[in-house]
Structures are given as C-alpha cells and as structure tokens.
Design a protein that fits this description.
By secondary structure, this protein is α+β, with helices and mostly antiparallel strands. The chain has one domain: Roll (Pnp Oxidase, Chain A). The protein is built from four helices and eight strands; from the N terminus they run E-H-E-E-E-E-H-E-E-H-E-H. Strand 6 and strand 7 form a beta hairpin. The longest helix has 21 residues. The radius of gyration is 17 Å and the shape is globular. The model has no long low-confidence stretch (mean pLDDT 94).
C-alpha cells in the first residue's frame, strides 16, 4: 500500500492541492525538548518544484516551527484525505524560514495571497515523499475556512502585530531563537 517517491508527481500534486488542511511537524535536537505539530489551512501552500514546497507561516502564539528549523532544519508535512479514497502523503525534508526583508521573500510572497498576518514563508527541500493508506482517517465534510485569524490581525493592526511578535515569537517554548527583527510582510 505504501510507496516512497523521489519527487512530487502529478497525481500527488493533484491530491495535495485538493486538501483543505495539512499538518506540520518539527522537533528540537534536545531529546527533552518539545515536539511540535501544527495544523495549517487557508490558501497557504504551494508546490514550487517536484522536490520543493512552501507555505505561508501566519502569526501565532508560538514560534516552534521557525525555531526548530533554525536549529536543525528537519520538517515533516502531512496531508490526509478526509473525503474520497483513503490516502496519506508525507513530505519529509529540510526547511528554512524566509522572513520579510530576506532576499527571496518578495519572489516567494508573489506566489501567495497577501495576508497582513504573514510572518514568514517556510520553504522545504523535500528529501522523502511517502504515501500510505488512510484507512484510520475519518470521513469528514469541509464547511469552509475560518476567518478568525484575519479578523484578529485586522483588529491588531500592523503595529499591534509587530508588538505581538516581539512578545510571543522571539523564542520557542524551549528557549530556542525564533523570529529575527524583521518587519511584517506589507
């Protein structure tokens, strides 16, 4: 049932692009450190090439993914079918956080919608692509995207978002460095 691939083929591209949610997992090197697993949604994911993907990282209460990538680069993205044939696709790779102000931020950002809550773009060089059955994944119906993140960001405003990031996104829960002193994507 499971299959390992060296690149994201057309059939996987179609599957990945049809999913409304995906999951991102990272871990620090310290075995006592906290693992991170985050759900992602909205129009935030792009396949850049058969071995490279990216997603928008929106402002949140933690900065674990960015901190773990700064420390060791390891990342796993998982897509699973909640409707249709049972399928799970995992993209293992090495990632990096591209913050506003970085040389390649503008070119990457041009591939996504503009969200005032964008704090970085996570770029992943995919090193292993595996799919397996999703027999244990329940069937669920998609109702729509939530707008809470956008309403929250609009209420905060650009200055409020910057202050929030300074307070909440400077370091991970394990004390690893998080965001740099870059400004929001404008």
């Amino acid at each position: 049932m499971g299959r390992v691939r060296s690149q994201i083929e057309e059939s996987l591209t179609k599957f990945i692009q049809s999913q409304h949610v995906f999951f991102v997992s990272t871990a620090p090197l310290d075995p006592a450190g906290h693992l991170n697993l985050s759900p992602k949604g909205l129009d935030t994911f792009r396949i850049l090439s058969p071995t490279s993907v990216a997603y928008l990282d929106l402002v949140g209460s933690g900065v674990e993914t960015i901190a773990h990538l700064r420390e060791n680069g390891r990342i796993l993205l998982m897509f699973c079918a909640f409707s249709g044939p049972p399928t799970i696709v995992r993209l293992h790779g090495m990632g990096r956080a591209v913050e506003p102000g970085a040389d390649d931020f503008s070119d990457l950002a041009a591939q996504f919608p503009t969200y005032e809550s964008t704090r970085a773009i996570i770029v992943v060089e995919v090193t292993r692509i595996a799919n397996s059955c999703g027999f244990g994944v329940p069937l669920m119906q998609y109702e729509g995207d939530r707008n809470h993140s956008f309403a929250w960001a609009k209420k905060k405003g650009l200055e409020g978002l910057e202050a929030y990031k300074r307070e909440k996104n400077r370091q991970s829960i394990d004390g690893l460095p998080g965001l740099t002193e870059q400004k929001s994507a404008e």
